[in-house]
Amino acid sequence: MLLALVVAYLVVSIGIGLLAARHVHSASDYITAGRSLPMYMVMAMVFATWFGAETVLGISATFLEEGFHGLISDPLGAAACLVLFGLVFALPLYRLKLMTLGDFFHIRYNKRIEMVLSICIMLSYLGWVSAQVTALGLVFNVLSDGLVSMTLGMIIGAAVVLTYTLLGGMWSVAVTTFVQMIVIVIGLLLVTNAATDMAGGLPLVLERAAAEGKFDWMPSMNMIDILAWMAAFFTLALGSIPQQDVFQRVNTSKNERVAVWATTAGGVAYFFFAFVPLMLAYSASMIDPDMTATLMENDTQLVLPTFVATHMPFWLQVIFFGALLSVIMSTASGTLLAPSVTFTENVLKNLIPAMSDTQLLTYTRYTVFGFTLLVVLNAILSDGNIHDMVVNAYRITLAGVFVPLTAGLFWRKASNLGATLSIGLGLGTWLLVEFTIPDIAFEPQFIGLGFSLAGMIIGSYLAPNPNSANHRGIADPRPV
Fold first, then answer.
1. Mean pLDDT over the full length of the chain
2. Is residue 193 domain-shared with residue 239, that is, in the same domain?
3. What angle do helix axes 289-298 and 275-287 make, rounded to 10 degrees?
4. For residues 55 and 256, which has the higher predicted lDDT (pLDDT)?
């Protein structure tokens, strides 16, 4: 009965997405929803940017193992990214009226840099979307009591998300996400309230977690620990800023005010609501410590779905798994679309310069389908750790893309040579350390970020762009 109700919910989600697809009449409708969405819809989509499988299953599992010290990248870094994007990056990028971030690299630098950075952005999505697909497989596996394998569950879940994303693009993402966010918020609050009551009340849960040091989040006064902390924080706080899905959600806004404040509010809401699944997971460990200990030896990500399936009344099971599927699908749909749009707009369009708007829309849909197949294959072949998939996804953008984007927006002297050296040194040093010093005490992409910054400064002073003296910068700091 539970599985049947969940399947019915999936069918309803597909129906909502297909209804929204009626608004798609052009590539602009498909990619940006016609830049027409109000505050509440954009905020819901921004919130859903991060509130996916990683938040409910990934960071809750990490919280049980490492406490908040293991969550510096997410939710702390992830929330900081959204707030920073809203307050600093959203306005100048929105005013440019671009389709993709790759378009910015084209107008600010050149075609070669546009294509290289667009490919880097695309590659970062492989692990991120794979994490969502892995979570879908896990949910179907738990709901069917093992009858549906993880692999088959991944295929089923990916097919559902693909169906409405393929046809409706950003319009389907926006409408389904808004409905799914309502289910997520109400569902997780109800289930967590029931779990904390079973554990003795929220004050007791907080007291026990604090006594175990679960809320300790600052690094020790040790240089290696400080560097590791900073690397974990910056990987998502900065590395996820040059991401098409974040930019795409901002770009759907109907005006500048919505672009700035819906993004900022979505980031703040994400940070605080991310604590809900943490409390749910810790309550589960207090209620059934033996089950939790057993699952943590095998796969900590199974703690929450197994706990709900075995300890919650049927109606709360329906709410939880409905909310969980909403979480995953709302994130997966947007992150399937983002790399596909980037490929067609900034790679394929450079190879077929005479591409019409209709062809762009058609090729984008083909790419969504192809990228989905690639993601499912990657998810099947990976080790299944959702938190690691997400964190690793943003190494390449931190090391190679963040500096060219930021310098291009806010530093008038940023030049083509500066961007080229920034990309080469950033990615090169990151990969060199990654493969030659695998046991380094902190994330090697942090070193790549430093070299990327150095490359931008050195290259821009060595060979400034011919028009840099007259370039006033793209960013406009005027308030909204």
1. 86
2. yes
3. 110
4. 256
- Maximum CA pair distance of the chain? 69
Same domain? 451 vs 381: no
Residue 97, C-beta contacts closer than 8 angstroms, at least 6 positions apart? 35
Distances (CA, A) of 259 to 46, 64, 78, 245: 10, 36, 18, 14
At residue 350, the pLDDT reads 86
Q: Which amino acid is at 311?
A: H
pLDDT at 469: 41
68 close to 214: Cβ distance less than 8 angstroms? yes
φ, ψ (nearest 5 deg) of residue 463: -140, 80
Confidence category of residue 467, pLDDT binned at 50, 70, 90: low
The pLDDT assigned to 53 comes to 67
Question: Above 50 in pLDDT, residue 31?
Answer: yes
Mean pLDDT of 326-335: 75
Q: Is 129 in the same domain as 62? A: yes
Last residue of a domain, one of 393, 425, 445: 393
Q: Hey, what are 288's tokens?
A: 């059934």
Query: Domain tally for the chain?
Result: 2
- Short-list 431, 394, 439, CA closest to 228: 439
Q: CATH no. for residue 298?
A: 1.20.1730.10
Tell me the sheet residues that pair with 253: 37
Q: DSSP states of 108-123 as a string?
A: HS-HHHHHHHHHHHHH
The SS3 call for residue 146 is coil
Pairwise CA distance, residues 145 & 176, whole Å: 28
Q: How many helices (H) and strands (E) does the chain have?
A: 25, 0
Tell me, what amino acid is at 279?
M
For residue 438, give its domain range.
395-480
